[in-house]
Design goal:
Layout (H helix, E strand, L loop, with lengths): L3 H14 L6 H9 L20 E2 L5 E2 L2 H10 L7 E5 L5 H9 L2 E6 L2 H13 L5 E5 L12 E6 L8 H5 L1 E14 L2 E9 L5 E9 L33 H11 L1 E2 L9 H7 L4 E4 L7 H18 L3 E7 H11 L23 H15 L9 E6 L3 H15 L1 H11 L9 H9 L7 H13 L1 H5 L3 H24 L3 H22 L6 E4 L2 H4 L6 H4 L5 H9 L3 E7 L2 E6 L8 E5 L7 H7 L4 E5 L6 H7 L3 E4 L10 H5 E4 L1 H4 L2 E5 L1 E2 L22
Helix pairs in contact: 2-4, 7-22, 7-23, 9-11, 12-13, 12-17, 13-15, 14-17, 15-17, 17-18
The structure holds S-adenosyl-L-homocysteine.
Length: 669
């Protein structure tokens, strides 16, 4: 185990010195400031990686090398008075404070300014002054400055900053009209009116907002992307691709992949998350099915939980565990996107699970299958009422009256959100919560005869209550509703683990955007969490998350919500993406362990943030870069990555669901 201090030394040597930073005072400053103190505990382990990291308010702490590059270029003497714009975490302010006499730092976000102040004080700095405000206007009362360092990228150089520079002073600032890419300039004030400008190359910073920066609300799409590494121009792709080739474990086909090593890596984990980078690639389903079968057969897993609706998946569960079925209001998996679960690949897996369970004598040892999602308001209401009708007709009467609040909206719940948002006409929060509470209060009585049925009803009542919040939040913004949904998925997982007993183990199937750690992607910077992050925080090494990726082929998707499914061609991956590196490895299919990599070099290289592709139920190839790529740090996102270079669309099942023939149920035609 290396200590954080060892890693700090190594960071200075390999990331900063090795890249040509020579100023010994600068190197000394970096040796003396503990970077981990400027990020949340979650990132302590990553504090000395060669990468920017997310901080509060959707901002980032800069990559150490970039800070060093800027600070060295600013030529800061021991008597200097320095202005920093974008104090963020306070890390760069600390470095500057080691070099200069006084550091004045302006930060836009009040919360960040407060945190930076506290951290700097705790570390004993007395020469830093942090102000919350618009740094594009500088800090006139403390001007002029010997050096100004700007840690965010604006469309042009703010005049105020030029004016507040001493003659002979230097301003280091990223400038660019594109939100995601700037040129790093050093501007030296040669005389009253003469400024000399040199360039240090291309960089990626978060936007500089404010009076002489970008509009804080009207920022262009993607403007909040993390600051990435400087692109050194050299074609480093082939080198990294060959590191991937060396470190990966290739397999010839999904059917013939040897899973022994993977099962060993998963070890004693209690929760395994299996992702997908589209919602319609056959190979992802087939590979997840193979892994899940191995975990059930060899490692004691007994829960499969899908990014699917609870009541619909409950029908599948009853079929695979041979329980009596209860009718649904709407046919199972009949809503958009029906192909996501009503497909041939899924049918094969469910058939296997049915056969497998038939060989297991004790019901407690059988594997159950469940839905974690939140989109089943109508079916969930129906299921709660159906349960109460059976066990407590009086309570059923009250619940029916309560849920009547939803009647106008239950077939199209998004309209409920709109009505609720537009001014109190509809608000069923109280009704949903009261019904849930009344049900839970009667737990002992209701679960006496049939614990499974009570559990199912309680989960449905929870879905109603969370869906109510979800649809209402949808009109306030995507972030809040996303978080409600993923928290619900996580709570459902916890409930399942508890319900199935202390030895239970779960496999989750959901999109990469749910199962990969959100904190390692742009999502985290937007304040979004997901089930993968919550699982990692709760279960640590007892969880294992696997992302999936592909370069090209075909995919089942739609061009708009509720539009018909099409088989679309997947465009070959973007030149700046992780996918391109995987493709260039030359291996068609492979597993790439990232938590315990086969070579350290591969993990280190992949720790530099890059683009990653996410195709959902909607795919719009024509706007792919803005609509389907986001920035991520792969080894912090997943414990392992499974690559299938060319993939094909899933085969949807045609026709309506029937419950006639038990042999064909639930997917019988
Ligand atoms: N130097 C920081 C990097 C933070 S990222 C560190 O080491 O952690 C850039 C910061 O600039 C963000 O915190 C953002 O909120 C801030 N910022 C953007 N526009 C600003 C403005 N006009 N004035 C002050 N701060 C600004």
């Amino acid at each position: 185990m290396t200590t954080l201090m060892d890693r700090r030394e190594a960071m200075v040597d390999t990331q900063i010195k090795a890249r040509g930073i020579k100023d010994s005072r600068v190197l000394e400053a970096f040796r003396s400031v503990p970077r981990e103190k400027f990020v949340s505990v979650r990132y302590h382990d990553l504090a000395y990686e060669d990468a920017p990291l997310p901080i509060e308010e959707g901002q980032t702490i800069s990559q150490p090398y970039i800070v060093a590059l800027m600070v060295e270029a600013a030529k800061i003497g021991a008597n200097a008075r320095v202005l920093e714009i974008g104090a963020g975490s306070g890390y760069a302010s600390a470095i500057l404070a080691r070099l200069a006499k006084d550091v004045y730092a302006v930060e836009w976000h009040d919360a960040l300014a407060g945190l930076a102040r506290t951290r700097l004080k705790a570390l004993g700095f007395t020469n830093t002054h942090i102000m919350c405000g618009d740094g594009t206007l500088g800090w006139p009362d403390a001007a002029p400055f010997d050096a100004i360092v700007v840690s965010a990228g604006g469309p042009e150089v703010p005049r105020s900053l030029l004016e507040q520079l001493k003659i002979g002073g230097r301003l280091v600032i990223p400038v660019g009209t594109e939100a995601r890419s700037q040129e790093l300039f050093v501007i030296e004030r040669a005389s009253e009116h003469k400024y000399d400008r040199t360039s240090l190359g291309r960089v990626q910073f978060v936007p500089l907002v404010g009076a002489e920066g970008w509009a804080s609300d009207g920022a262009p799409l993607g403007a909040h992307r993390a600051e990435g590494p400087i692109r050194v121009g050299a074609r480093e792709g082939p080198r990294i691709a060959s590191l991937i080739a060396d470190a990966c474990e290739p397999f010839s086909s999904v059917e013939h992949a040897d899973l022994d090593a993977l099962v060993r890596r998963i070890g004693a984990a209690r929760v395994v998350l299996l992702g997908e980078s589209t919602h319609g690639s056959s190979e992802f389903y087939a590979m997840r099915a193979r892994i899940t079968q191995a975990l059930i057969a060899r490692a004691g897993f007994n829960i499969v939980a899908l990014e699917a609706d609870w009541p619909d998946t409950a029908m599948v569960d009853r079929a695979v565990r041979k329980r009596p079925a209860v009718p649904l209001r709407e046919p199972m998996f009949s809503r958009f996107p029906a192909w996501m679960w009503r497909n041939r690949e899924m049918q094969r897996f469910v058939d296997w699970l049915t056969r497998h369970n038939a060989t297991i004598g004790r019901p407690a040892m059988q594997t159950s299958i469940h839905g974690l999602d939140i989109y089943s308001l109508n079916n969930s209401i129906g299921a709660v009422l159906e349960f109460l009708d059976r066990v407590d007709p009086t309570a059923a009467f009250t619940a029916r009256e309560m849920y009547a609040c939803f009647t106008p909206w239950e077939r199209d719940p998004a309209t409920y959100g709109r009505a609720a948002a537009s001014g109190g006409l509809a608000n069923c929060e109280h009704q949903a919560l009261t019904t849930l509470r009344s049900l839970l209060e009667e737990r002992l009585r209701y679960s006496e005869n049939d614990g499974d049925s009570f559990f199912d009803a309680a989960r449905n009542a929870t879905v109603v209550s969370e869906a109510e919040k979800y649809y209402r939040a949808m009109y306030r913004g995507a972030r809040e509703s996303w978080n409600i949904r993923d928290r619900h998925m996580f709570e459902t997982l916890l409930a399942l683990l508890e319900h199935r007993g202390p030895n239970s183990k779960a496999v989750i199937w959901a999109h990469n955007s749910h199962v990969g750690n959100a904190a390692a992607t742009e999502m985290g910077m937007h304040g979004e969490i997901n089930i993968g992050q919550l699982v990692r925080e709760r279960f640590g090494d007892a969880s294992y998350s696997i992302g999936f990726g592909t370069d090209r082929g075909t995919v089942a998707a739609a061009s708009n919500w509720d539009a018909p499914m099409q088989v679309m061609a997947v465009r070959p991956s973007h030149a700046d993406s992780y996918e391109r590196l995987c493709h260039e490895s030359g291996e068609r299919n492979f597993m790439l362990p990232l938590r315990k990599p086969n070579t350290i070099a591969v993990r280190n290289e992949l720790l530099r943030p890059r683009l990653e592709r996410a195709i959902g139920v909607i795919y719009r190839p024509e706007t792919e870069l803005v609509s389907h790529y986001f920035q991520a740090t792969l080894p912090a996102q997943f414990d392992e990555f499974i690559w299938i270079d060319a993939t094909t669309a899933v085969e949807p099942l045609k026709g309506a669901q029937t419950e006639g023939d038990p042999e064909l149920f639930p997917f019988g035609l």
